[in-house]
Design goal:
281 residues, mainly alpha
């Protein structure tokens, strides 16, 4: 129990220190803004370790972080091919295909009003379909390799990306569109010089949402059929053997991958939409 009380003390002390950093005179510094989430994350890990060991929680219920780190490095030779199979092939391939197809479809929807009235309601219906229902069907259609996982990802990211892009293309004001018509601009000139740049914040919002959906879709699809590698396959087989430390190691890989993927898209957004009020400091 001593470790439990020590964990509470660590949490209170770290909370107070983080609050002082976040609200103090140096809160505007970039180093402080980076330090606050890092300190919070490190505190969660330390408290987790102390509580699990202090209460002697069985590893099959919740392993301590030190055990998870050991499983991560001890199984790195297995986890790397799993990562390549799930992310580099299934998730990333489906992400590029799904978002690219949604972007082109959004332009057609914006150009032809009957498509907007007919396709967007279908999109809402498709977005509500449970992934555990569609994934087995797509696995049977496209086989057990990465192609079926990419197909699941396409279904998951297509309609969120489509809806965001259509909303962005319609975000310009009537005065801006009238000005382009005054200049004699054609539909395509107005699209690429006014409406598409104005829609970039919406497009990147859809791209960021799709980063997490792509990874989740690829992992879930692997539960319904996969070659002998993949993050979803590793979770399924490790749970069957009660190797919960390996399961948590796979979760760490997925979390780090999703965070890095989201961060890369957010970085690209800051570079391409620096003019937007949301990106101004």
């Amino acid at each position: 129990m001593i470790l439990v009380f020590a964990a509470v003390a660590v949490w209170i002390g770290a909370w107070a220190f983080n609050g002082w950093l976040a609200n103090g005179r140096f809160s505007g510094l970039a180093s402080v803004r980076l330090a606050v989430p890092l300190i919070f994350g490190a505190t969660v890990i330390v408290v987790w370790e102390m509580i699990v060991r202090g209460l002697a929680v069985p590893a099959v219920i919740l392993p301590p972080p030190s055990t998870i780190v050991g499983a991560f490095f001890g199984n790195f030779g297995i986890l790397w091919p799993d990562f390549v199979q799930t992310f580099a092939k299934g998730a990333l391939g489906g992400y590029v295909i799904g978002c690219g197809a949604a972007l082109l479809t959004a332009i057609l929807v914006d150009r032809y009003d009957f498509l907007r009235r007919g396709l967007l309601p279908v999109g809402s219906f498709m977005a509500a379909l449970p992934i555990v229902g569609t994934a087995p069907i797509l696995v049977m259609w496209f086989g057990f390799d990465w192609q079926s996982k990419a197909a699941v990802v396409v279904v998951m990211v297509f309609f969120p990306m489509l809806v965001n892009t259509v909303a962005g293309l319609r975000d310009t004001s009537a005065m801006q569109r009238d000005l382009m018509r005054t200049y004699g601009a054609s539909y395509w000139q107005t699209l690429f010089k006014l409406r598409f740049p104005a829609a970039l914040p919406f497009i990147f919002n859809g791209l960021k949402i799709a980063t997490t959906l792509a990874l989740i879709g690829a992992i879930v699809a692997e539960f319904f059929g996969s070659p002998t590698r993949g993050l979803g396959f590793r979770i399924s087989t490790s749970v069957g053997t009660l190797a919960l430390d390996v399961v948590w190691a796979v979760i760490v890989v997925a979390a780090l991958t999703g965070t890095a993927f989201y961060g890369a898209v957010a970085w690209l957004e800051r570079r391409m939409t620096f003019w937007h009020p949301s990106q101004r400091k």
